[in-house]
Amino acid sequence: MKSRPALRDAAIATLALIVVLAIPLLHRSPAFEDFIIRLSAMALFATSLNLLIGNAGMVSFGHGLFYGLGAYAFALTMQLTELSLPVAIVVAMLITALAALGVGAICVRLGTDYFAFITLAVQMLFYSIIISWQSLTGGDQGLRGGIPRREIFGFELASQLHLYQFCAVIAVLGLLVLRHISASPFGQTLRMIRDNENRAGFLGIVLWRARLAAFTIAGAFAGVGGVLAALFVSGAYPELADWPNSGQAIFAVMLGGVNSFLGPVLGAMILLALNDVVTRFTEYHGLVLGLVILGFALGLRRGVLDFLKVAWPGRSR
Amino acid sequence: MKLEIRNLTKSFGGVRAIDDVSLSFPSGSLSAVIGPNGAGKSTFFNLISGAFPADSGELLLDGRDIIRLSRTERMHRGIGRAFQVASCFPTMTVQENLMAAVTAHLRQWGNLSHRFPPPGVRGRAEAVMELVGLTEVRNVQAAILSHGDQKLLDIAIALALEPRVLLLDEPTAGMGPDERWRMIERVRRLWQQRQLTLVFIEHDMDIVFQIASTIRVLCYGRVLAEGTPDEIRNNQAVIEAYLGTEADAA
Questions:
Q1: Per-residue pLDDT at B250 exceeds 50
Q2: Can you list the pairs that A271-276 forms with residues at least 24 positions away whose Cβ atoms lie under 8 Å?
Q3: Quick one: B113 and B168 in the same domain?
Q4: pLDDT of residue A3
Q5: B7: phi > 0 → left, psi -120 to 50 → alpha, else beta; which?
Q6: Residue A315: its chain B contacts at CB < 8 A?
Q7: pLDDT, tens digit (0-9, with 9 covering 90-100), for B227-242
Q8: Which of B90, B116, B161 faces A203 most closely, judged by CB atoms?
Q9: Does A282 touch chain B (CB under 8 A)?
Q10: Contact of B6 with B58, CB cutoff 8 Å
């Protein structure tokens, strides 16, 4: 059953993909291609987090756990087994989904504040495990030895162009699925819970079950983002699972806007661009980033897309 | 549907909020529950709708005890309620509120395969909107509706679940005199059209005596009196405990 909005989304995604894939054919720019590869990972990371924050009103401070886990699970699967790359991605996604299910089972019944704290605590626990379990993870040096090159369908991901194309396709497909989830009756259910959980409960919605499902889905897609990050750095590092990384995702969501599906993608773009530009001029890029975020929080009082939606109403969602 | 309550009791930390209450609401009746503040009226509704469990007692819906069922199962068996403070989904439009309610009622809230709204939902939401008269504000966000329309939307959400028994907790709370009468007229019309067993809590005695066929008076968690408006108006205990003080205050 395809309705027209679904076709429209698919058309927009196809168009965006064609444009992104066409650019290197016209002009090769390693810096731009790197940017898009990193953006693919970050966009999936931030958009999956926004399924929790924007749709369900669940502010998780530990989403980096699943990003990092996705990266390690993928890289280790590739190193330790002979599985092909797509299978390894699916394995990594399943592992993160299972981990999210486990963590969520503990967290989703908690109140808002405790939910934030416990997700953060579990992430720090995971980070410590990565650091300590040197024989498997390489500890604070990160997972070394690279990711074995196995070509798929004629793609050789050691080539930057192929990696660029691969990441763009995965990110657009992932965003399309997340968009569909957000626009489904289940996505609407999450908004009902965010708006008024008491009434939602009286309508027969099992709150913890809906929240746990959202948490698991979000974890799985953050895991895919982590896979792309692992492909980019050809390995995995503990920083991917560290709490400042969760903060990056929250910043991306805040900068872009929680109430617009593409808000977090735009936020991720802004954040990455800021990082790249500012580090060229000063080592104090954290200071600049902080000022920008303050500017958004105090000036616009919302993310860019949410701000535009308020400034030019008439188009909903 | 006939709603029968037997020996219902609920304590909060030693205080008996509902103390051995037995009441019967015949199928298709329109009844008011009145009583002073703190009499246990809202607690009584919360126990019937399953907001929290009762300590003891029976709740019979057409003769079948549903006291052990969850609020969801009670909802699916036909018990609906609206709230004292209008309870809706503020960021959604009126139409989205009702489509969301219908979706939940069809047990489609976990559906991932369709776009929202799933098939069949739009029409039902439309029917409820027309029934309560919210069609004109269908695209208005619930948060910016007038107070009266929010109360109506709350009732409409309850009606979207196709209840047979409807509990309205002060449907006219916070309204001016004219608005009150318009509201209560609508409620009466809904009761007739849907052949509901309707129970409402109300503080405005003019309204209560005008439209309720039977009245139950709660006081300190117990049933003080029940009867027709005329019987209640002349009941000495009710006058002393409740009506008299109202008159004094006025």
A1: no
A2: A271/A42, A272/A35, A272/A38, A272/A39, A272/A42, A273/A35, A276/A31, A276/A35
A3: no
A4: 54
A5: left
A6: none
A7: 999 899 888 888 888 7
A8: B161
A9: no
A10: yes
Based on the domain organization, do B55 and B173 belong to the same domain?
yes
- Residue showing tokens 């209640």: B232
From B182's Cα to the closest Cα of chain A, the distance in A is: 25
CA distance A198 to A30: 52
Entry pTM: 0.90
CATH no. for residue B17?
3.40.50.300
Contact A195 B92 (CB under 8 A): yes
CA-nearest residue to A198 within chain B is B87
Cis peptide before B117 (omega within 30 of 0): yes
Nearest-CA distance from A55 to chain B in Å?
A: 11
Q: In this model, does residue A139 exceed pLDDT 70?
A: yes
Same domain, B90 and B65: no
Claim to verify: residue B158 and residue B170 sit in the same structural domain: no
Residues of chain A found within 8 Å of residue B75, distances taken between Cβ atoms: 202-204
Give the domain extent around B204: 1-78+164-250
Helix, coil or strand: residue B30: strand
Residue A4 contacts B, CB cutoff 8 Å? no
Which of B131, B146, B162 represents a domain boundary (last residue)?
B162
* Interval A258-273 mean pLDDT: 93
Residue A176 has pLDDT above 80, yes or no: yes
The total domain count for chain B is 2
Q: What is the pLDDT of residue A1?
A: 42
A203–B contact, CB cutoff 8 A: yes
Could you report the per-residue pLDDT of B44-101, keeping only the tens digit for each? Answer: 999 999 999 999 999 999 989 999 999 999 999 999 999 999 999 999 999 999 999 9
Whether residues B58 and B176 share a domain: the answer is yes
- Asked if B104 and B181 sit in the same domain, the reply is no
Q: Check pLDDT > 90 for residue B249.
A: no
Domain boundary among B143, B162, B181: B162
Per-residue pLDDT at A196 exceeds 80: yes
Say if residue B158 is in the same domain as residue B136: yes
SS (H, E, C) chain A: CCCHHHHHHHHHHHHHHHHHHHHHHHCCCHHHHHHHHHHHHHHHHHHHHHHHHHHCCCCCCCCHHHHHHHHHHHHHHHHHCCCCHHHHHHHHHHHHHHHHHHHHHHHCCCCHHHHHHHHHHHHHHHHHHHHHCHHHHCHHHCECCCCCCCCECCECCCCHHHHHHHHHHHHHHHHHHHHHHHHCHHHHHHHHHHHCHHHHHHCCCCHHHHHHHHHHHHHHHHHHHHHHHHHHHCCECHHHHCHHHHHHHHHHHHHHCCCCCCHHHHHHHHHHHHHHHHHHHCCCHHHHHHHHHHHHHHHHCCCHHHHHHHHCCCCCC
Judge if B58 and B103 occupy the same domain. no
Q: What is the pLDDT of residue A154?
A: 67
